[in-house]
Every structure is written in C-alpha cells, then in structure tokens.
Write a structure and sequence with these properties.
Elements: H1 4-15, E1 37-42, H2 57-66, E2 71-73, E3 79-81, E4 84-90, E5 94-99, H3 113-123, E6 139-146, E7 149-154, H4 161-164, H5 175-181, H6 183-188, E8 196-201, E9 205-209, E10 222-227, H7 231-239, E11 245-246, H8 254-258, E12 263-269, E13 274-278, H9 288-296, H10 300-307, E14 312-313, H11 337-347, E15 354-358, H12 366-379, E16 384-388, H13 391-400, E17 406-409, H14 422-426, H15 438-449, H16 453-470, E18 473-486, E19 489-491, E20 506-508
Parallel strand pairs: 1-10, 1-11, 15-16, 15-17
Antiparallel strand pairs: 2-3, 4-5, 5-7, 6-7, 8-9, 9-10, 11-18, 12-18, 13-17, 13-18, 14-18, 19-20
Helix pairs in contact: 1-10, 1-12, 9-11, 15-16
Length: about 500
C-alpha cells in the first residue's frame, strides 16, 4: 500500500525529474555583470498578447511591460502614477485624470485621452468579448474633453476605481493602430507605450527596450523570454548561467539555487490563490455535494508540507490572506475523507468520470499537485482522470469556457480586495462564470458599490458561506511564488505576478 506521503513525494519527483547540474568547476561566480541582455525563463510560452484577452500569468508578465496603465501598483503594494500623472474625485462618482504629456506609442503615434477612452470602453464592450469584461464594469461613461484630460463617471460611488485601472483591463492600447490593423494583427504585432517595444518570435521571444520610454530606458538593450516547460531544464539553465531569472521555482529546488555561489532565491506570498476552477454546469460537478466531497478529500496540509516545503498556507475560503475582509476567524479548509465519502453517497454519485485538465508549470507544481490530489480522490471512491493539456489549449478553453471538469487557475487579487478577485472572476459574465446563485450575485454587486466597509465585510462573510456551500472554485493553496536569479540581478517580485522590468524595480549590478 502506497502511503499518502510516498504519493506526494512521488508526485513532486514528476515535476523535477532528471539531474540538475551544478556549475562546472572554475565557472564564473561574478556578483556583477556588464550584460546588456536580460534572459528570463518561464514555464510556458506567450499564448495571447492582446492585454484585454488574457489574464494568464505567462502572458501578463510580458503584456504589462509592453503596455502601460493610467495608474501603477508597485511591489510595495502602493498606487503610483502611470500614464495619468494625477487624479481626483469630483462629487461621489466622477474621476478626473490628468494624462502624461509627450508620451508616444512604439509606432510613433502620440498617446492621448482618445486612446485611454477607447481602451477602457473596449474592455466592457459586449461586441469585443474580452477576458476582462467585469474588471471595469463599474464605469457608466467616459469623456475626453481634451487630449490630456479623461473624465470617468461611475454608475455608483466606486472608491476602488483608481486601483482597478492599475491592473487587468487598464492597459492602454492605441486606438488608431488597432482599428486600422484589426484585433488579430494587433495580437501578433502589439504596440503599446511600455518599456518593451518590438519583438521577434521563434523558439524564444526577443523584446527590444523602448529607447524613448517616458519612465526611462530599462537597464538592458533587450529582454529575451525562453519558455522552458519542465522544471529540471529550467533550473539547469539558471545554474549554468544561460538565463538570468527563472519563474515558478519549486520549493524543493530552492536549496540547489541558494547552494550555488552565483545564484539566489527571492519570492513573495502570492496575492491570490491556486484553485481548481470547476465547470459546475457539467455533471456530476453541478451537484454541490460532489464538490464538497472533492474539497474534503484534499489533504492540503500534506501538500503544503511535502510538495511546497512549507512555502504556502492552507486557504480558508475564496479570499486571500492579506486582502481586505479576509476573515482570520475562519478555520483552514478541512480534510475529512470519511465525510467526503458520506457526501458522495448522499449526492448519489455513481462513479461518473471527473476530469482534471492540468498544465505543466502554468502554475508551479500543477502537475505534481494534480497527481497527488487524484490519488486522494481515488481513496474516497472518485473516478478521476488526469489529462495533461498544453498551455495554448488551456488558454483557448478559458476563452471559450469549454473545460471538461476541473483545471488549475491562479486567481489574482488585483485590488487587495475581494472585488478584485472573487467577484471579478466569478461574477456574472466573468472569465470563470460557470455557476450562478442569486444571493451571491446580489451581495457581490452591493459590496462592489458600497463605501460602507462594515457592510462590505458582512456581505463578504455571507458570500463566503455561499461559496463554501457551492464551491465554484476548489481552493488548494496560497503559495509563496519564488524566483531563481543570478546574484548580479536586482529585482523585487510583485505579489500580484506582474513581472516588473521598469527602472524602479530591475537593474543589473555592475562593476
């Protein structure tokens, strides 16, 4: 009989199979560099570049550097000016933004309020069918009275609007260029105002630095993305000095990186959760009792301890630790296999096949966690099948809402508030809208527009109860997201997964 601990250790080995070489004797151990090219390896390729059509981490690391937002949230969690230099609230539901003068898109077109108006309206235009339709849906209308002024009217008071504009949906695209070439060409040849400009794509993506960036040219002439799906070769590339930074460093590989004189590890508690998204329209996942059983059968503490080496915490619900209205009184999600069997029996579960469609390194440890959790579910009598899908297939299924069962997602708290994660994604018309419940919708909409934080807290506590009964997601872990890097790289991870290469956050340490 294979024990759960052996199963978890075996699953971990799946993610790191193969020897990871150390630096060869005599290899350079420089703490400084004269490099002009930053090379980054991540666990998958870019699937979608248009910033309004993807919220996937492998995409946003790059789209947020090609495009700018009106406001910007730095790794310190504070809100800073972006393409807007200042903003003020007039009355209860009108914001006036002063835009940055002299900014140009990569093709030379000037940035004006017309571009900002077009970009924001595009996100919630039903005809555009974007992936960020709920992000800025508090907006009623927008005016652009002159090239450097933008006035936004919200449907009701929305104190979070400046923060909303800093993340998904807030990226500014060029109206004239996009309308002239169309969405498909724009996705292939994106033009923004950000620090990374033109790019060339083959087995890697090469971005040229924008020499005229308003925020100052970055500390590299170009940035290279190497998609390396498997963990072992990604870590090996770092240790051999072939890349400068790797994302999604599994905790069990951290000692290799820290034990190497030329490399180091840095990370941050993720401002979000790793969850199983659930297609609650597909039997038997349309039965809340089945989903409750699946949740109860997951030994999350073992996953945190064995797969993550303690680099994570067990969630208590749909709100991430660190967010407004996180309820510290809620216990961690329970592990109770006996009760899981009882709920399957009560649900009338007849052994219908349940699919986990997992990627490899879309989120760190996804395949390893899938194998471990599948074993736990089989222990309570669930007929589960794990299928590995390519990242591009996952992206397409996300856009078309065609997942067969469960899949890995990493919902990000874009506002430090439940409205920026749970409601943005699970609300009506959101990217993960596979389930509806009238009271959930009523409370979520009321909390979105309320300026009464006491009411909002009460609403989110009630929403959490509804969530835990229906489980439109099955939360698994709130992890630390770690990066491996050469010691000559100075870089601070953003808890919200933005990979920030602007001057305030990245530079090479030079002699």
């Amino acid at each position: 009989m294979v024990t759960r601990r052996e199963l978890l250790k075996g699953a971990a080995a799946l993610g790191v199979a193969g020897a990871v070489p150390q630096l060869a004797p005599g290899a350079a151990l420089a703490q400084t560099t004269q490099k002009k090219e930053l090379v980054v390896a991540q666990g998958g390729d870019i699937a979608k570049f248009d910033p309004h059509f993807s919220t996937s981490s492998n995409d946003i690391r790059w789209s947020f550097n090609v495009f700018d937002n009106l406001t910007s949230r730095h790794p310190d969690g504070k809100l800073y000016p972006g393409l807007a230099t200042e903003w003020k609230l007039e009355g209860q539901s009108t914001y006036r933004f002063k835009l940055r003068e002299g900014v140009k898109f990569h093709n030379g077109d000037p940035f004006t309020s017309a571009d900002a108006k077009f970009s924001i309206e595009r996100t919630y235009d039903p005809a555009a069918k974007t992936m960020v339709a709920t992000a800025l849906s508090t907006i009623d209308r927008i005016e652009a009275p002159d090239p450097l002024t933008l006035v936004i009217y919200t449907k009701k008071p929305d104190p979070l609007l400046p923060a909303r504009l800093a993340f998904y949906g807030g990226q500014i695209v060029p109206k004239k260029y996009l309308e002239s070439v169309g969405a498909e060409t724009f996705n292939a040849k994106p033009v923004g105002t950000g620090p990374l400009a033109s790019w060339v794509k083959d087995d890697r993506a090469v971005f040229d630095a924008n020499p005229d960036y308003w925020g100052g040219r970055i500390d590299a002439d170009r940035v290279v993305l190497r998609p390396i799906v498997e963990t072992a070769p990604r870590v090996a590339a770092l240790l051999k000095g072939e890349v400068d930074i790797i994302t999604q460093l599994p905790p069990d590989q951290a000692e290799r990186v820290t034990g190497n004189p030329a490399t180091r590890v840095t990370g941050a508690l993720y401002a979000g959760l790793y969850v199983f998204g659930v297609n609650s329209k597909r039997p038997p996942l349309d039965n809340p009792l089945v989903k409750q059983a699946l949740s109860l059968a997951i030994d999350r503490e073992a996953i945190v301890k064995e797969l993550w080496r303690g680099r994570g915490i067990v969630p208590s619900g749909p709100i991430a630790k660190g967010d407004n209205h996180f309820d510290a009184k809620l216990p961690p999600l329970a592990y109770n296999p006996k009760e899981a069997r009882e709920r399957l029996k009560k649900a009338g579960y007849k052994g219908e096949e349940i699919f986990i469609e997992t990627t490899v390194a879309y989120v760190s440890q996804d395949k390893a966690m899938s194998e471990a959790i599948a074993g736990m579910w089989k222990d309570v009598g669930v007929n589960v099948r794990v299928e590995v899908i390519e990242y591009s297939v996952r992206a397409q299924k996300g856009r078309e809402k065609t997942f067969k069962g469960l899949w890995w997602s990493d919902p990000t708290s874009t506002l430090g508030d439940p409205d920026g994660m749970m409601w943005r994604l699970l609300g009506p018309g959101g990217p993960m809208d596979y389930w509806r419940e009238a009271k959930f919708d009523e409370l979520g909409n009321a909390a979105r527009f309320s300026v009464d934080e006491k009411f909002r807290g009460e609403a989110y506590r009630e929403i959490t109860k509804i969530f835990l009964e229906n489980l439109p997601w099955i939360p698994v872990i709130q992890p630390y997201e770690d990066y491996g890097m050469q010691k000559y790289v100075e870089f601070t991870p953003n808890p919200n997964q933005q990979f920030e290469v602007r001057r305030f956050n990245f530079r090479f340490r030079r002699a």
